């Protein structure tokens, strides 16, 4: 099978989680840099990565990489790419997104225009035509220029991978599905442990936890742009990957995953979203203010995205809400708390310094993922397992 270099962008700060996911899928890492992981794989890897990766934003085929200080160099570098290996004569191709950072070339619209023109000139010579119908399948490209190094990627995904297909109703400023999954995967939580989100909104964190618990691949119920690429993909790549995903689902697991919110409409939306995700019976949603948060079990996990910034503009209101969260957490004996927030007094309100603190960009907003570790549960002996 054809070997390719594949790029998986992700949220800044979550590269290590994505790297581990790619390793677990069985692929070799080429490079880890800010906001992306590059790895090697064949066309089967494209299908499996799109379907199985929980924390990636999309999967790109790395088409070219070259230095360009001027638009002439950008044009010539792009024109030199063997585009016929990727774009058929009737393919629809365009630069869906372009960016320039710490580079002489930084105008997205100019970068998009130059690359499109260079591609047209290259393909004209290859296919010996004067114009293109572009009435075939879609081949969107993404271009980034970092310190004058141009990287051109062919987007195999289409709609971002965070769009699993279940979130039809959303709360204000919800956490993205792939970021929610990464937050969970940064903790020691597993399907046998309790997980509570006291600010669940439309249910994203509990739903992602349930998908992980039931081993439901995040992309198994959606479509991808490259499914129709007969010139690149093997005929059975996606069919085999979808079948693999279906075979791995385990709905027999017992879970204790709970989501609370003070807004009754959001609780209804969360239940509807969980039903669409196929995990309605694995999560208990309830209308409950954070001040009433409690749970009888020990060694649980509180993983949450409390209101902050745009979601809660009043400083006094924010302080009260976080104090309520801190007081509720104090009553959860032996629990761990994982809080993503742009509020800069989280540690002060919680009354302790976080054991770990990771900077993460949630969209364009800088946030921190505060990790307050509780004690580890005692090791279960064979006798205790038998008694249970």
Number of helices: 11
Report how far the terminal alpha carbons are from each other: 49 Å
Q: Give the radius of gyration.
A: 23 Å
Give me the count of strands: 14
**How much β-strand is present in the residues?**
15-25%
Task: Describe the 3D structure.
With 388 residues, the chain is of the alpha/beta class. The chain folds into two domains: 4-155, 2-Layer Sandwich (VC0802-like), CATH 3.30.2130.30; 177-387, Vaccinia Virus protein VP39 (Rossmann fold, 3-Layer(aba) Sandwich). The protein has helices spanning 15-25, 43-52, 71-79, 108-127, 177-185, 204-213, 237-248, 264-277, 315-330, 346-350, 382-387; strands at 4-9, 29-33, 36-41, 60-67, 92-101, 138-146, 149-155, 195-197, 257-261, 283-287, 301-304, 336-341, 356-362, 365-372. A seven-stranded mixed beta sheet has the order 2-3-1-4-7-6-5. Strands 10-9-8-11-12-14-13 form a seven-stranded mixed beta sheet, covered by helices on one side. Strand 2 (29-33) and strand 3 form a beta hairpin. Helix 2 packs parallel to helix 7 (237-248). The longest helix has 20 residues, at 108-127. The protein is elongated. Mean pLDDT is 94; it is low at 383-388.
Defining traits:
388 residues, VC0802-like, Rossmann fold, 2 domains, 11 helices, elongated
SSE layout:
Blueprint: E1 4-9, H1 15-25, E2 29-33, E3 36-41, H2 43-52, E4 60-67, H3 71-79, E5 92-101, H4 108-127, E6 138-146, E7 149-155, H5 177-185, E8 195-197, H6 204-213, H7 237-248, E9 257-261, H8 264-277, E10 283-287, E11 301-304, H9 315-330, E12 336-341, H10 346-350, E13 356-362, E14 365-372, H11 382-387
Parallel strand pairs: 5-6, 8-9, 8-11, 9-10, 11-12
Antiparallel strand pairs: 1-3, 1-4, 2-3, 4-7, 6-7, 12-14, 13-14
Helix pairs in contact: 2-7, 3-4, 5-6
């Amino acid at each position: 099978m054809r070997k390719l270099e594949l790029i998986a962008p992700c949220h800044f700060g979550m590269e290590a989680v994505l790297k581990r996911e790619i390793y677990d899928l069985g692929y070799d890492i080429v490079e880890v840099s800010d906001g992306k992981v590059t790895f090697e794989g064949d066309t089967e890897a494209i299908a499996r990565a799109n379907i199985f990766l929980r924390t990636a934003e999309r999967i790109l085929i790395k088409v070219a990489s070259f230095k360009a200080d001027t638009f002439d160099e950008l044009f010539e570098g792009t024109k030199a790419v063997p585009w016929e290996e990727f774009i058929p004569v009737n393919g629809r191709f365009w630069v869906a997104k372009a960016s320039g950072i710490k580079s002489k070339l930084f105008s997205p619209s100019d970068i998009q225009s130059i690359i499109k023109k260079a591609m047209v000139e290259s393909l004209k010579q290859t296919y010996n035509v004067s114009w293109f119908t572009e009435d075939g399948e879609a081949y969107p490209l993404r271009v980034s220029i970092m310190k004058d190094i141009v990287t051109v990627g062919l987007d195999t995904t289409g709609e971002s991978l965070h769009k699993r297909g279940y979130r039809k109703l959303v709360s204000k400023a919800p956490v993205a599905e792939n970021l929610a999954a990464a937050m969970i995967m940064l903790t020691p939580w597993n399907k046998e442990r309790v997980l509570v989100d006291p600010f669940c909104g439309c249910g994203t964190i509990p739903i992602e936890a349930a998908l992980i618990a039931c081993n439901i691949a995040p992309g198994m119920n959606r479509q991808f742009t490259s499914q129709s690429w007969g010139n690149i993909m093997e005929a059975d790549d996606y069919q085999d990957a979808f079948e693999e995903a279906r075979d791995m689902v385990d709905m027999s697991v017992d879970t204790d995953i709970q989501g609370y919110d003070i807004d009754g409409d959001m609780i209804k939306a969360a239940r509807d979203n969980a039903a669409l995700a196929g995990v309605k019976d694995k999560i208990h949603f309830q209308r409950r203010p954070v001040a009433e948060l409690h749970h009888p079990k020990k060694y649980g996990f509180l993983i949450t995205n409390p209101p902050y910034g745009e979601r809660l503009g009043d400083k006094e209101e924010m302080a009260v809400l976080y104090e309520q969260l801190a007081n509720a957490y104090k009553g959860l004996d032996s629990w761990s708390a994982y809080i993503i927030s742009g509020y800069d007094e989280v540690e002060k309100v919680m009354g302790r310094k976080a054991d770990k603190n990771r900077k993460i960009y949630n969209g364009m907003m800088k946030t921190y993922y505060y990790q307050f570790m509780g004690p580890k549960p005692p090791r279960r002996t064979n006798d205790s397992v038998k008694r249970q």
